[in-house]
Specification:
Chain lengths: 276, 186
Amino acid sequence: MNKFGSLYVDGDSLFHKMNPSIKLILFALWLIAVFSYLDINISCGLLGLGFILLYFAKIPYQISRNLFMAVTSFNLINALFIFLITPDYGVTLTGNHTLVAQIANYPIYYATIMYILVISLKYLSLLPLTIIFVFTTHPSRFAASLNRIGVPYKLAYIISIIFRYFPDIHHEFKIISNAQAARGFSYGKDEKSLKRRINNLFNITIPLIIQAMQRIDKVTNAMELRGFGTSKKRTWYNSTTIKVTDIIFLIMAIIGFAALIYYKTVINSGFRIDFI
Amino acid sequence: MKTSIFNFNTRTIVTISIAAALYGIVGLFGIPIGPNVQLRPSIIILSVFAVYFGPIVGLLAGFLGNMLTDLLAGWGIWWTWELASGFFGFFCGLVYLFKNFNIRYGQCNKFHIVFLTITAILGFVAGYAFAGINDILVMGEPPRKVFVQIAIILVTNSAVFILLALPIILGFIKTNRRHMNLRVED
């Protein structure tokens, strides 16, 4: 499909073969690891490791490029925001008053620049594993494996339906906005007045909501006709098993995570901008 | 008849999923009105679904929908911000619990509208305060920057809710009332 479409990219890599719930656990460990450090060594290490893993996932570059651009621009804006509002935050963290430059009464501290670098690297290192998780996980297999590790099947089915229907809804959004644009109610840049653009964008939501209500009826009827929810358990067409390689990956991830905890408790527990 | 909010039947599951998918997709669109500030129509989606189907649907649709937005946009899962959306959905849906409020039949009075406005803004405050405090304590963001950011989001989102989402909800109530000229006799 087009820009987003259904996200799963078929492939034969390490990550495609991995059990989806194991992948979810790895993803969660990764997020915790990234979120709980403000340390340049950890940030650089995780970012490097992330891109190595991304190389193994063999996802075409054209697909991940949009996400890469979006996250980089988010990072730049965030960095600018931090810099404009709190130019001395790095100094309060480190106590290092080294001045790099001074532009018209506006001091630029070494510590603040390093702080912004660290926090941008930290956010950037979320990207590789997000790309891997999003593009190599088959939605139905993911739901099935969630059910297997103990999530109630009704909850797992919610995930399955979300991933099944969001490309359709995205398509519908495009159809409605194109139809409105054809009538002269565009929300794009071709409309000059900002107020009218806002109005046009917000008016798209009403037909979308009404369509969604009808879709809820249709899907509910189809599922009830097939007897969904009558039994306590259900079997899955796309059921998966946990293989030996999955266990090995899990153990490796847990060892890595334990090493990070060791690093945090013994070597450095707070903010750190200098390399080891 | 309104269904109980704890009744997890097939319809509830489908409602949560479709609402989350819709919220997730619409969350990708917005009109930039300033640096890092976008007016997003997704608030309308979440508040309408929460008012229609109750707080639990609002909570789960907000949480999962925002997760979908974040995954599609590529910045991992920021579970505190997803939970902030969930809080907003939950608080918006509280008005569903009143016995004499029913958006399907257009039953609604002035008190309900005031209650809905107050709870929605409270939902924003609770959600963003939670996410912001977590950003400061866990993520290590500078407090002053987080405060400024949250203040901007709070003001724009409250304005969007009052100026744009509330009229749409009232519109739904009015349309549904027009079709309900029958009365139940005891």
